[in-house]
Amino acid sequence: MTTLAAEDDLVRQAKAGDRRAFDRLAAEALPKVRRLVRRMIGHPEDSDDVVQEALVKAWESLASFRGEAAFATWLTTIATRLAVDLMRRQKRWRPEAQVAYSNLCFQSEQHQAEVIGAMSSPDFSYEVREHVAYCFACVGRSLPPEEQAALVLADVVDMANRDAANAMGVSESVFRHRLAAARQAMRERYEGLCALVSKTGICHQCKGLREAAPIAKRGGPLPDVADFAERCAVAAHASFGEGSMAQLHDIFWRRTKEIEEAETGEVVPIGDCGT
Questions:
Q1: Are 245 and 188 in the same domain?
Q2: In terms of domains, do 85 and 101 share one?
Q3: How far is the C-alpha of 148 from the C-alpha of 175, rounded, in Å?
Q4: Which of 49, 73, 96, 210 could form a disulfide with 267 if both were Cys (CB 3.0 to 4.6 A apart)?
Q5: Is residue 213 domain-shared with residue 103, that is, in the same domain?
Q6: In which domain, by residue range, is 53 found?
């Protein structure tokens, strides 16, 4: 890990135009920044675009970096605000977006083949906690972008309220209000949506995917995540975008975005993952 003195030296070199010094600074911060952006946005290519845009903006505005916080914190702030900007430009998803995608798969041999291909990969195994984390991010895309960001910063990456508020450029009181609104909205949406939360929930995607996976690759039993805090904990600690379900989830993100942007697909379950 770079010491404060070494970081200060690299910052001075980077401000003098040394791109290699900047790249060394960025390299240490990037894993955390990538994880944060991916958990906010979900979609793999959109997430990569935001990270790259953050790096470009950081390089171009390096003269404004005063060293009041660590370089990684500064880069995280840039990436957070760019992620929120992207979500503002995009259409908010329906809470039932996963159900609409499940219905599409049920009706389309092409989409079924795409999913079966990913599940047939030697690297694939069904890990329910990975899928809960995916679901948490997907349903989160139905929130206003500022609330989605607040939820991820506080409940997924465990950032202190003060730091999270600074990252979003708002007061702590505004941040707490957004976080409370996000938590309440997610509780209400899961109650009618997720069969793991409520037996009357319309989405059984966790169960459907597990049963569709080869027996030897079904992982452990479905967890009890009826409590919202428990679901947040699973989402926070499960692998996201890089585990055994990464290839399958990347397909889900791409296709679900297409459906939501086109405003197509029924949200009443008609297939095995929704009944």
A1: yes
A2: no
A3: 11
A4: 96
A5: yes
A6: 4-89
**Exposure b/e, 223-240, CB count within 10 A at least 16 = b:** eebeebeebbbbbbebeb
Long-range contacts of 66-71 (CB under 8 A, 24+ apart): 67/8, 67/11, 69/166, 70/7, 71/7, 71/10, 71/11, 71/25, 71/29
What's the token pair of residue 222? Answer: 């479905």
* Distance in angstroms (rounded) separating the CA atoms of residues 165 and 257: 28
Please give the structure tokens belonging to residue 48: 């990569």
Residue type at position 76:
T
Cα dihedral across residues 94, 99, 105, 111: positive or negative = positive
Token couple for 159:
């950032």
Amino acid at the residue 43: H
Say what the pTM is. Answer: 0.93
Q: How many domains does the chain fold into?
A: 2
pLDDT in tens, the chain (275 residues): 567 788 899 999 999 999 999 999 999 999 999 999 999 999 999 999 999 999 999 999 999 998 888 999 999 999 999 999 999 999 999 999 999 999 999 899 999 999 999 999 999 999 999 999 999 999 999 999 999 999 999 999 999 999 999 999 999 999 999 999 999 999 999 988 998 888 888 999 999 999 999 999 998 888 888 778 888 899 999 999 999 999 999 999 999 999 999 999 899 888 555 43
Which tokens go with 205? Answer: 């995607």
| Residues 32 and 101 reside in one and the same domain | no
Do 203 and 116 lie in a common domain? yes
Find tokens 């297409």 and name the residue.
258
Q: What whole-number distance in Å separates Cα of residue 12 and Cα of residue 75?
A: 16
The owner of tokens 């428990």 is: 230
Cα–Cα distance measured from residue 39 to residue 133, given in angstroms and rounded to the nearest whole number: 9
